[in-house]
Amino acid sequence: MVDNRRLLMGSKQLDKKCSEGAMTSPGLVFHADFCSDLCAQSKEGCTRITVAKDGYCSFFTSDCSETTSLSGAVSFQVKPFSTRAVYDMTDCADCSAGLKFIPQTSGYVLSLEECLLSCSRNPNCEGTTYYYDGFCSHIGKPTNAIDKWKKICYKKQSPPPTIAPPTTTPPTTTEPKRPCEINNGGCDSKRTCTEVNGAAKCEDCPAGYANDGAKGCKGLHACSRVSELMHMACSPREFTRTRFSVSSISPIPPVM
Q1: Which of 135, 147, 132, 133 has its CA nearest to residue 102?
Q2: Which end of the chain has a smaller Cβ tally under 10 Å, C or N?
Q3: Residue 14 in contact with residue 5, Cβ under 8 Å?
Q4: What pLDDT digit, counting tens, does each position of 158-196 carry?
Q5: Which residues lie below 8 Å from residue 206, measured CB to CB, with a gap of 6+?
Q6: What is the pLDDT of residues 83-114, one digit of tens each?
Q7: Do domains 4-77 and 181-240 have the same CATH topology?
Q8: Using CA atoms, how far apart are residues 147 and 166, in angstroms rounded to an integer?
Q9: CA distance 130 to 135
Q10: So what CATH class is 4-77?
């Protein structure tokens, strides 16, 4: 148990208990200052208290001129609160019946007197509940002002959706066609196209045809073919009347 004598200021009597003017007392309290506050607020005329070593709080109406010995006790005079005439001490359950908690003006204070004074300054406050840890709870009639900001909730934002980067299709590269792949390189269809140093070259025309320029083909005349065989000059007119005598070739009968 904390030595209450070190927590009190002013004229006091140590190891003494008042023996006259005893009145209804609160009994065990958590702190000597709370015993003093309760006496100061008492409407029954409490003027002096004795706090025993075990924390028992006793009220007295006398000036405590007569005392008895009580080891570890301290007795001293109490000055009444200005709120003594305004508030009546009552049961906590009865005090809050039909009333609502006022969060806006409730909070921690240093003393019971400060708790009562803060309620007096609030027109909506009808009473208080003072807790041993110093929390002062204001209660009052339900109003719109009291209902506001009763509670508020915050929630973390969801992470933004992951957006995939746009896919890019590489440009399609078309291999250029080889010279001979385009219209046979410009060669006649009877001539084979050969690529030489990146350029088209037309091979010779097949048998029965003669090259016509660098790319074309032309058909050979019958007389021309015979002339080529006989190694002789020949024309269509001469071909009808001329006989040939070649040792390796039989005479050709006249053409009728």
Answers
A1: 147
A2: C
A3: yes
A4: 788 888 888 888 777 777 888 888 888 889 888 888 888
A5: 190, 217
A6: 877 787 777 777 777 888 888 889 999 888 88
A7: no
A8: 52
A9: 6
A10: alpha beta
- At position 241, the amino acid (one-letter code) is R
Which ranges of the chain have pLDDT less than 70?
A: 1-11, 142-152, 221-256
Closest CA to 99 of 126, 130, 119: 126
For the chain, what are the domain ranges?
4-77, 92-147, 181-240
Return the SS3 of 51.
Answer: strand
Going by C-beta distance under 8 Å and a sequence separation of 6 or more, which residues neighbour residue 156? none
Please provide the DSSP assignment of 58-103 as one string.
Answer: EEESS---SEEEEEEEEEEE-PPPTTTTT-----HHHHHTT-EE-T
Query: pTM, whole model, 2 decimals?
Result: 0.44
